[in-house]
Specification:
Elements lengths: L4 E2 L8 E6 L6 E6 L4 E5 L4 E6 L6 E7 L2 E6 L3 E6 L3 E7 L4 E7 L4 E6 L3 E6 L8 E6 L4 E7 L2 E6 L3 E6 L8 E4 L6 E6 L5 E6 L3 E6 L8 E4 L2 E3 L5 E3 L2 E6 L6 E5 L4 E5 L4 E6 L6 E6 L5 E6 L14 E6 L13
Antiparallel strand pairs: 1-30, 2-3, 3-4, 4-5, 6-7, 7-8, 8-9, 10-11, 11-12, 12-13, 14-15, 15-16, 16-17, 18-19, 19-20, 20-21, 22-23, 24-25, 25-26, 26-27, 28-29, 29-30
Length: 326
């Protein structure tokens, strides 16, 4: 099995999001606090294109049908068409924290600290792109879209579930079972539920109404310290394996763990990254995992390793759940 390697020409300031292309195994999109969006060929270890058209930190980026979209602290949603030029699709009244793309309707979804969720027609020109604007009761921290479902995690630990075909109201409103603020929400590939991670070293696995499985939560990304007290780290990011539906979590302890949600077991623990894991994603085939090691400022300003992106090849059965013992 080939070893993991570090991408050349990484961002120079905090890495906010990594996304592999939904069908092309090699294309990797990266947003960062240095105001740039970058496109890499992860197989060839090559920076293919980048743009610097945001005026402040970029907090999220997502692939569309013909290019990519990005948003961040300058409150603008930009389309990066054919990875060559950008145009502004629209804007929020507050910082944009989360983006998702629904390919079936060419619809871009943006969530913001202005307490709105907005839907845009990604093809529309000249400011006619806004399809819907929904007010929510708190700032949006994280979003996840899959097929026709959208999960939205708010400050205050609420999780909203929408059907993107009819955006009038959420089909479910949940309070996270975790007692601390949500860092990341990710819908399961099956659409039966979602995984939620918190700032306090915990992850919950929660099922939507009608599913026959029961919810549970577990502790992770903790290190033993003196006097039987654990050092507890935020769990910043979650990504599902596209084939086996196991998932990885990345924490501010600089480690990545691979979990089997059905058997409630940890399968692997990958350590030794230079600093906090800020973002993770599998490629479409599940044979590569991208890992962003980027200090997430839990301990304030301090000297920290430079930002880095690691490509970890995954062996064929590495993410496969183990068979249940009877």
């Amino acid at each position: 099995m080939s070893k993991q390697f570090e991408l050349l020409q990484p961002p120079s300031d905090g890495i906010s999001k990594l996304r592999f292309h939904p069908t092309d195994d090699t294309k990797l999109l990266v947003s960062s606090w240095d105001q740039q969006v970058r496109l890499y060929d992860a197989q060839q270890n090559q920076l293919v294109a980048s743009h610097h058209d945001h005026r402040a930190a970029v907090l999220d980026t997502v692939f569309g049908s013909n290019g990519a979209f990005s948003g961040g602290l300058d409150r603008r949603v930009l389309a990066w068409e054919s990875y060559s030029h950008t145009r502004e699709i629209g804007c929020h009244d507050g910082e944009i924290s989360a983006l998702e793309y629904v390919s079936s309707g060419n619809m871009l979804l943006s969530g913001s600290w202005d307490r709105t969720l907005r839907a845009w027609d990604s093809r529309a020109q000249d400011g006619a792109a806004l399809i819907a604007k929904l007010d929510v009761e708190e700032r949006i921290y994280s979003m996840s879209a899959r097929e026709t479902l959208l999960a939205v995690a708010l400050a205050g630990r609420k999780i909203l579930i929408y059907d993107t075909r009819k955006f009038d109201a959420p089909i479910e409103v949940r309070e996270s079972s975790l007692k601390f603020p949500t860092r990341c929400v990710k819908l399961m590939p099956s659409g039966l539920g979602f995984v939620c991670s918190s700032v306090e070293g915990r992850v919950s696995v929660e099922y939507l109404n009608g599913a026959t499985k029961s919810n549970y939560a577990f502790k992770c990304h903790r290190q033993p310290a003196e006097d039987n007290v654990d050092l507890v780290y935020p769990v910043n990011t979650v990504a599902f394996h596209p084939v086996y539906h196991t998932f990885v979590t990345g924490g501010s302890d600089g480690a990545v763990s691979l979990w089997d949600p059905d058997n409630k077991k940890r399968l692997k623990h990958y350590q030794g990254y230079p600093t906090s894991i800020s973002a993770l994603d599998f490629n479409a085939s599940g044979n590569m995992l991208a890992v962003a090691s980027s200090y997430t400022y839990e301990e304030g300003e301090k000297d920290h390793p430079p930002d880095s992106i690691w490509i970890k090849p995954m062996a064929e059965n590495e993410a496969r759940p183990k068979a249940k013992k009877h």
